[in-house]
Amino acid sequence: MTSTTHSALPGPGGPAPDKLAFTVPSGRRRVTPVRVGREFRRDRLLPQLIRKAVLDDQGQQCVQVRLSAKEAANPAARALLDTEAGTALQLNQLLGDTEYAALFPRLVGYELDTAEPYVLYDPPRGTPVARIHVMSATDQEIFTRDLMLALCLLEGQGLVPRGVSPATVFWDGARVQLWGLESVTRTGRPRRPWGRAPFCSPEQRRGEALADARDAVWSAAQVLYQLVTGRPGPADRPPADLRDHRKLDQTLRPAFAPRAADRPTPTQVLDLVAPGTARRVRLAVPPDETRPHHEAFEEALRLKRQAPAARPRNGSSEPENGEVLCPYCLETIRLDLTKLFVTDSRMQYKPLDLKGINNPVRRTDVMRGAVQKCTADPEFPTHYIPVPYLTYGRPLTVAMVGQSSTGKSHLLTQMIAAITDGGLEPFGLKWQSVNPEQHARFVRDRVQPLRSGKVLDHTAALGMDDFARFVESLLITDARGQVRPIAFFDLGGEDLVRTDAALRFLLGVDALVFVVDPALALPLPQLDHARERWGVEVNRDGDLAFGTVLDRLPKNGGYLDVPAAMVLGKADLLRFQPPVDRWLNRPPATSLDPELLREESRDVYGLLRRHAGQAWLRPFDAIRRCTLHIASATGGQEDHGRYPAGAGPRRVLEPLLALLAMHGLIQVPGGAEALAVGEAPALEAVPWDGTGEAGRFERSDGPGEPDGSEEGEHR
């Protein structure tokens, strides 16, 4: 952030002030008249604008950092403002009223899901050091301590500020204040070029390898060098005259190393310039409250690993006598060329006669768009099955589960859109529509409107004599060349709590996606505004649709064995809430890492268990193979019936990837079983004899192995 001289604000006799409605750090909403001053570019390389403001309900002076409507149409610009607001909120919540809070901007409030998003801060404290020409040796010591203290606090949260420079570091003669929070990234994320030489580290300037807390140490050292000498240092090596500045040389010479691996961490520098300070900082930071919930997750996995797995239903893509299970009536059906139909221009079914089509290429193309009337159950309402669904072996059916307005339809639409955009290709999978006409209709009616920013209508409820139909189906070809149809069911919430024949399709379903609405599940204050807008309340008893579906599924032993994924949907509502902030901004997966997937599952489990209660975890507790995910179908909330920057999906494909892996379509290290329930640690695998001691090792003839004698016992 740069310092500028703003014009005077409009006086009380001027134009009537505008009104602002925004979220304060506690999560509550505040509505106030506001008067604003002239606007300036924050940094010529950045899209944010800045102006003074007075909140007239309390006469509070603040600074507004905002995006114009034109800039806000750019997702990258919105992401910068999101990063800034999220980092400021995290630091405000972490540091509270401690003495360390003054090291960073104090957040007043934010409004991000609007055409012109903004963040409000208390005015900056001090002057940017770019305007300071001389600093005393005593001030340099305090300045170095404070700057390293700020970097140490960020390091402890896994954050790396890439924008530390004379323009973003403020000094008021007593303390430092670090701005430029839009530059923050997470430790271990790929580096992207950011900043200006010499203040950005050599690796950061080149965008090499992964972000490291020691990147910011280079930046801090360069700021100090300019403060001491009055000139910038070299961009890729230690200054040649560093020895002429004894204190700087003694404390920060390693910080100028061209490679991050050769530099000290912020904590190490802080311990050097102010011994004991880093330890006091660690004691001031609130303790981690997630540990007992993470331990409960690991215990739940341990119990699942000990439970015998049910015999899986045949998932082979090879047909058995040409028969497949009809997804509607659940009777077996096989291809019958005498029962084929196609639709005419009025979307009415008419019989298809293949006798006059002798060209094999044309015949195949015509059959791909045809359907077959299923007559396996004469008592079941009339229904039709796409021909490709009958010719590639056992189909895979996926059902979306959740109450009305939980975002199931938006999530499924973006999931299909991600597939058609090539999202499965990194995993060796290819796709093709089962029925081209049906797929084109799905894209036209759902994908295109949502991508353009339109809010989709709620899923229509079924009639009393109707039955569940899949809304889209695809042919997926795996890395071995095997093809398998996948059909997606998306029922309205009211249909999912019915117990009549409309839900009979669940008896044959192959995979489930349970969508958790955070507004219904989590009693967090930042969700109160969303609940008020939607007219809903927190439900401590869980999602009624979850219970209905779980009760309808056939049990086999202690757990249901239908692979499932739980998705904390609408996660953009919680994008600044740990651990959502850790996962939501991760780039789309290009490989499946079971360990990373278990970490995400553990974090979502912990969040729900801590704030929502065990009732919301019923699918995970009831189903043996169940992963948990964070996703947002739109990337933000609607404003007057539209998404201001269009619908930007985040992590919508990951739940489906997990389900495909559990069904063997994607190969993962450790196998599909380990993906969901984990691999048993060595100690867990040792059988116990009930006396408190582990059982003896088996006798072995191998060299150096225990032989079953007294010396060979494992205690």
Question: Can you give a write-up of this model?
Answer:
It is built from 22 helices and 25 strands. The protein is of the alpha+beta class and 715 residues long. Strands 1, 2, 3, 4, 5, 6 and 7 form a seven-stranded antiparallel β-sheet that branches. It has a seven-stranded mixed β-sheet with strand order 20-21-22-19-23-24-25, sandwiched between helices. The chain has a four-stranded antiparallel β-sheet with strand order 16-15-17-18, with no helix packed on it. It is elongated. The model is unreliable at 1-8, 11-15, 314-319 and 688-715 (pLDDT under 50).
In short:
This protein is of the alpha+beta class and 715 residues long. It has 22 helices and 25 strands.
List the helices and strands and how they pair.
Blueprint: E1 18-23, E2 29-36, E3 40-41, E4 49-55, E5 60-66, H1 69-72, H2 75-95, E6 107-111, E7 118-121, E8 127-128, H3 137-156, E9 159-161, E10 169-171, E11 176-178, E12 184-186, H4 202-206, H5 213-229, H6 246-252, H7 266-273, H8 277-284, H9 291-306, E13 323-325, E14 332-334, E15 340-343, E16 349-351, H10 360-368, E17 371-373, E18 384-386, E19 396-401, H11 408-420, E20 430-433, H12 436-451, E21 470-477, E22 483-490, H13 493-496, E23 511-516, H14 518-521, H15 528-534, H16 544-552, E24 564-568, H17 580-584, H18 594-611, H19 618-622, E25 626-630, H20 654-662, H21 671-677, H22 682-685
Parallel strand pairs: 19-22, 19-23, 23-24, 24-25
Antiparallel strand pairs: 1-2, 2-4, 3-4, 4-5, 5-7, 6-7, 8-10, 9-12, 10-11, 13-14, 15-16, 15-17, 17-18, 20-21, 21-22
Helix pairs in contact: 3-5, 3-7, 3-8, 9-18, 11-12, 18-21
